[in-house]
């Protein structure tokens, strides 16, 4: 079946994708929930108002300015609404109604799709972890102790998660100059980290460890992340606090959430593990997602990380969130950590691409060690769709602004 929406079948935002987001228009500045199809948005708020069902819980949730309540309703509701959206954009008999619910993407202003309730970022790429080991420990021990026992992660700051398109200000903090003296000032080693993030929709009870096989019951969808990092602040963080000032100032997130069901055709066998994983991380069906990322600076693609190469899988990361009995709740976001491969062209951070400043990167006819003010940074991604098609995970983009000092 194809879509009656013009250009949708040829788009990476085809009927197999249908990501969900929150938008507004000049005519109606109220943020509302919509589904993207091609270069159009199906206004779910307007669709609900035009129907007979306006008081049931799922319909009222779709009239809210953020997705949190809808996410809390669980997989059966997500599936039912997705089916209805698919019917609206493919059934010829519904076109005369649904065409009235469409808004051109060019007329929309995108907003954060949800209020993120928790943020946890992991380090799930073995190549990334090993590269950091080579750079920080001289290759003596590529992976930190216990890295293959359980995923490493840290709790981030939800107030600094920004939607794609929102500028990022260069952070200010503590760093050491060439003499080793600690100074306070703007970061001179601002980096990007290309990641895939996952949005939790289910809720679990405190004290319960959720196994990886419950992934699809608890995770609504995927986004792209740029977890901005001040590498020069990280030196002091590692001595004093762990990831804090170097990480907490900004994480950019896609404005559209790709439903997990849209990634069914992208499911792929994950790299083998060597049996060191903790018992709660054992999977009956070990899988990842065949997602190809592209990192661009000022329109120049500088790397193409492969998410399917990650050592720790998304289901294992979800399980690790509850390993100490902490509950899942709707609106929790967890990130994969930088996605990197074996070569410079597959790395998800400038730290790795430039090998900590030893191999400058060519961008715009000049060189980069880290990001300059005014740099426009984007992360995009595609994945296999059904019947030989491809779908896109919505880009995450931001421009670096000077520090406010």
TrEMBL record:
Domain (Fumarylacetoacetase N-terminal): residue spans on this chain: 16-113
Domain of life: Bacteria
GO molecular function per UniProt: hydrolase activity
Cofactor(s) the protein needs: Mg(2+); Ca(2+)
Name of one Pfam family that matches: FAA_hydrolase
Transferase recorded as keyword: no
Keywords: Calcium, Hydrolase, Magnesium, Metal-binding, Phenylalanine catabolism, Tyrosine catabolism
Keyword Hydrolase among UniProt keywords: yes
Pathway annotation from the record: Amino-acid degradation; L-phenylalanine degradation; acetoacetate and fumarate from L-phenylalanine: step 6/6
Enzyme Commission (EC) number: 3.7.1.2
InterPro entries xref list: Fumarylacetoacetase, Fumarylacetoacetase-like_C, Fumarylacetoacetase_C_sf, Fumarylacetoacetase_N, Fumarylacetoacetase_N_sf
Domain Fumarylacetoacetase-like C-terminal: 122-388
PANTHER family: FUMARYLACETOACETASE
Official protein name in the record: fumarylacetoacetase
Organism the protein comes from: Salininema proteolyticum
């Amino acid at each position: 079946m194809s879509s009656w929406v013009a250009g949708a079948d040829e788009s990476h935002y085809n009927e197999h994708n249908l990501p969900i987001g929150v938008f507004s228009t000049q005519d109606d500045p109220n943020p509302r929930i919509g589904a993207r199809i091609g270069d159009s948005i199906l206004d779910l708020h307007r669709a609900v108002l035009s129907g007979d069902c306006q008081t049931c819980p799922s319909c009222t949730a779709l009239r809210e300015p953020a997705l949190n309540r809808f996410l809390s309703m669980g997989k059966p509701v997500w599936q039912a609404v997705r089916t209805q959206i698919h019917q609206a954009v493919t059934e010829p008999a519904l076109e005369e109604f649904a065409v009235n619910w469409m808004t051109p993407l060019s007329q929309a202003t995108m907003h954060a799709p949800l209020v993120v309730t928790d943020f946890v970022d992991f380090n799930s790429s073995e190549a990334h972890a090993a590269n950091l080991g080579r750079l920080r420990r001289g290759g003596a021990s590529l992976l930190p102790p216990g890295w293959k026992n359980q995923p490493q992660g840290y709790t981030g700051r939800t107030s600094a998660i920004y939607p794609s398109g929102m500028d990022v200000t260069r952070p200010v903090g503590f760093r050491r100059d060439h003499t080793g003296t600690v100074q306070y000032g703007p970061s001179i080693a601002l980096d990007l980290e290309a990641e895939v993030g996952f949005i939790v929709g289910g809720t679990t009870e405190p004290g319960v460890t959720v196994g990886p096989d419950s992934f699809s019951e608890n995770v609504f969808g995927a986004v792209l992340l740029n977890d901005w990092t001040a590498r020069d602040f990280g030196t002091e963080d590692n001595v004093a606090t762990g990831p804090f000032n170097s990480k907490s100032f900004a994480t950019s997130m896609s404005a559209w959430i790709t439903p997990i069901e849209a990634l069914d055709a992208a499911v792929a066998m994950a790299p083998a593990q060597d049996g060191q994983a903790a018992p709660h991380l054992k999977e009956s069906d070990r899988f990842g997602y065949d997602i190809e990322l592209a990192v661009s600076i000022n329109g120049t693609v500088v790397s193409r990380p492969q998410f399917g190469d990650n050592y720790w899988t998304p289901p294992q990361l979800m399980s690790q969130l509850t390993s100490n009995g902490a509950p899942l709740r709707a609106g929790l976001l967890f990130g994969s950590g930088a996605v990197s491969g074996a070569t410079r062209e597959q790395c998800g951070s400038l730290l790795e691409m430039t090998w900590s400043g030893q191999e400058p990167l060519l961008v715009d006819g000049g060189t980069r060690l880290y990001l300059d003010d005014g740099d426009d940074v984007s992360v995009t991604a595609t994945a296999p769709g059904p019947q030989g098609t491809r779908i896109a995970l919505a880009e995450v983009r931001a421009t670096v602004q000077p520090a406010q000092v």
